[in-house]
Amino acid sequence: MTEQPTTIPAPDPVAASRRLMAVSPRSGRPGRRAWLTRGGSARYGPGFVSRWAILGVWAAMAGVYAAVEPHQFLQVGTVQTIFGSQEALVFISLGLLATLIVNEFDLSFASMQGLAATLVPVLVVEHGWNPIAASAVAILATLTAGAVNGFLVVKAGVDRIVVTLGMANVLLGLALALANLSTVSGLSPGFARLANQEILGLPVSFYYGLAATLGFAYVLRFTPLGRHIAFVGANREVARLAGVRVDRIRFGSYVVSGLFSGIGGVLLVASVGGYDPTSSVIYLPAGITAVFLGMAAVRPGQFNPIGMFIGVYLLATGVLGLQLLGYTGWVEDVFYGAVLIVAVTVSALLRRRTA
Predict the structure, then answer these.
(1) 14-51: per-residue pLDDT in tens?
(2) Which of these, 140, 83, 100, 93, lies nearest to 284 by C-alpha position?
(3) How far apart are CA 21 and CA 143, in angstroms?
(4) Of 174, 220, 317, 320, which cross-links 226 as Cys (Cβ 3.0–4.6 Å)?
């Protein structure tokens, strides 16, 4: 007796797209169900708590450090250190986020930042370039790297992990070759003001990161492009059937990743005056951890810029507090690894709950 093959009915694209999202890519109006799902009718109920609980965790962490080391932690300089030294991490995390929200992945964001941060002092100090022109070339280089990633993944169909991991090694090698395996420094104080000029006690680079985060969040939440991005991230085939240009958005995510990473590299080297290419690897776990930690805030279970921004500074608070307690050197790796495991676990649980 032969077994009859199972026939799978063809999906109904209209019904699937309605189930997928409450807002269609062409209609900017959220339905009543979408509003209730987002917690609009129960603003201060359990939904509100789950969206902002991470702020409570951040406050509790700061409270513990303040109680244990009040003379060191409760200082204006501590606040300035936490909020004034993470601009590079904010931008490269935005770069990684740009790919993750469309269900892609980029492991080369830290190396792209390293290449940009190396190119600027090499061109300015060793070849006499204008710092602005050198910065433009550095960002153009990371944009090109992002475009190559996008072409190989989207057009050529190569595995995204293989492509971006290979690109990370290529860019790291190029940065080491440009720097002649050493730290390149000697940028002018005038160029440093691009990142270090203080406004209300914090460097202007903090406000660059804040503006980029809010701008990205606005695009995702309130524009047709943002709705298309959400469709692609949720289900590519349904998005394609709904008329969304899926491959263009996937390709663009890698280019945007290169743009953010390049800007982060320029701001990083401007703030410190030089760069050691071998330090690029330390930003890889930090960026991944910040993005996944952000899934526990604002829109639980979903990648989002505001949550990522909170995650960056929560991580900075945790690491600095541990250093003030005398745990240095290895503490960052352990802390980032532990928080990454917790963040991914919590994100998986939140995804199941929202599903």
Answers:
(1) 444 444 444 444 444 444 344 334 444 444 344 666 67
(2) 93
(3) 31
(4) 220
In whole angstroms, what is the distance from residue 107 CA to residue 290 CA? 14
DSSP at 90? H
The β-bridge relationship of strands 198-199 and 202-203 is antiparallel
Contact between 117 and 275 under an 8 Å Cβ cutoff? The reply is yes
Question: Are residues 253 and 102 in contact, defined by beta-carbon separation less than 8 angstroms?
Answer: yes
Which residue, among 189, 170, 186, 167, has the nearest Cα to 178 in the 3D structure?
A: 170
274-289 b/e with 16+ CB inside 10 Å = b? bbbbeebeebbbbbbb
What is the Cα–Cα distance from 277 to 281, expressed in whole angstroms? 9
Distance between CA atoms of 245 and 236, rounded to whole angstroms?
10
Q: Residue 12 pLDDT more than 70?
A: no
Q: In whole angstroms, what is the distance from residue 127 CA to residue 145 CA?
A: 23
Nearest to 265 by CA among 187, 163, 335: 187
How far does the chain reach from its first CA to its final CA, in angstroms?
40
* Site of tokens 């699937």: 16
Look up tokens 């003030």; give the residue: 324
Helices first, then strands: H and E counts in the chain? 17, 4
CA distance 158 to 104: 12
Task: Name 184's bridge partners.
Answer: 275
Q: How far does CA 51 lie from the centroid of its chain?
A: 19
* Ordered structural domains, the chain, with CATH: 43-354 (1.10.3470)
Of 32-41, 49-58, 103-112, 178-187, where does mean pLDDT reach its minimum?
A: 32-41
Label residue 316 left, alpha or beta by phi (over 0 means left) and psi (-120 to 50 means alpha).
Answer: alpha
DSSP letter assigned to residue 127: T
Name the DSSP class of 202.
E
